[in-house]
């Protein structure tokens, strides 16, 4: 999902309670992926059955696709971002509303992709659209947060704190630019960038609409 020259490690905003829904979502994604690793030659059929194929759009695959991944790097990158940003958004919204929020953002992301690639027969999978929604809500809810990040500078590795708003804004602008450059194509380098854009915007709208569980 979040291909970038930097790797986030954690944020600086602690959550006040255990993010049980976020952990459950991560567990579900990992469980589905581990099942995929046992399928062997049946993996492609699995992706076409549960992935979102715009030309054969169904509401069912709009939701199942966000729990399916295409490889180890794909799922590890997605789950890292969800782990870092999801706990705080769940803390702000509350468990039930966070679960609803996550699914709505994932659905909005999938629908955005389907609308921008209506004739595509390529299955799109992954939690990245829903996680983009989580990132969008985090962007609004925690403007003072910072992200502890691994930043490679030439041959040296630096660990720095980057303001979360800057980190996420740069990512979002990159997604929009990539999407505009490839408008009408099924994907950009194997990444459904318009799903990310749609998910991020959905998060900025749905998060505040569901209301804040608490202040701070």
What's this entry about, in short?
With 216 residues, the protein is mainly α. It has 8 helices and 3 strands. It has a 3-stranded antiparallel beta sheet with strand order 1-2-3.
What does this structure look like?
- With 216 residues, this protein is mostly helical.
- The protein has a single domain, classed as Up-down Bundle (Rhomboid-like fold).
- The chain has eight helices and three strands, in the order E-H-H-H-H-H-H-E-E-H-H.
- A three-stranded antiparallel beta sheet has the order 1-2-3.
- The longest helix has 22 residues.
- The radius of gyration is 17 Å and the shape is globular.
- The model has no long low-confidence stretch (mean pLDDT 90).
Q: Examine the coordinates and then state which fold CATH places here, giving the name of the CATH topology.
A: Rhomboid-like fold
Calculate the terminal CA-CA distance, rounded to whole Å: 29 Å
Per CATH, which architecture? Up-down Bundle
Largest sheet: 3 strands, antiparallel
Helix and strand sequence: EHHHHHHEEHH
Q: For the largest beta sheet, what order do the strands appear in spatially?
A: 1-2-3
Structural class: mainly alpha
| Overall number of domains | 1
Q: Helices and strands in order, then pairings?
A:
Layout: E1 7-11, H1 20-36, H2 43-50, H3 59-64, H4 72-93, H5 95-116, H6 128-141, E2 146-153, E3 156-163, H7 164-181, H8 193-210
Antiparallel strand pairs: 1-2, 2-3
Question: Notable features of this structure?
Answer:
single chain, 216 residues, mainly alpha, 58% helix, globular
């Amino acid at each position: 999902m979040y291909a970038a020259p930097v790797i986030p490690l954690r944020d600086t905003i602690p959550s006040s309670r255990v993010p049980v829904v976020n952990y459950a979502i991560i567990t579900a994604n990992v469980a589905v992926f581990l099942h995929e690793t046992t399928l062997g030659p049946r993996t492609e059929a699995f992706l076409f059955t549960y992935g979102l194929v715009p030309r054969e759009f169904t509401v069912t695959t709009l939701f199942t696709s966000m729990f399916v991944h295409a490889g180890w790097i794909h799922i590890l990158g997605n789950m890292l971002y969800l782990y870092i940003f999801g706990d705080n958004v769940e803390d702000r919204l509350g468990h039930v509303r966070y679960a609803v929020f996550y699914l709505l953002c994932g659905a909005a992301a999938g629908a955005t992709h389907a609308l921008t690639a209506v004739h595509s027969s390529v299955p799109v999978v992954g939690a990245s659209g829903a996680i983009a929604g989580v990132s969008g809500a985090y962007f609004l809810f925690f403007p003072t947060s910072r992200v502890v990040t691994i930043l490679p500078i030439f041959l040296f590795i630096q660990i720095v704190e980057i303001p979360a708003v800057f980190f996420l804004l740069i990512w979002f602008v990159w997604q929009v630019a990539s999407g505009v450059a490839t408008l009408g194509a099924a994907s950009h380098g194997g990444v459904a960038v318009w799903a990310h854009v749609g998910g991020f915007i959905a998060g900025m709208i749905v998060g505040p609409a569901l209301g804040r569980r608490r202040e701070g």
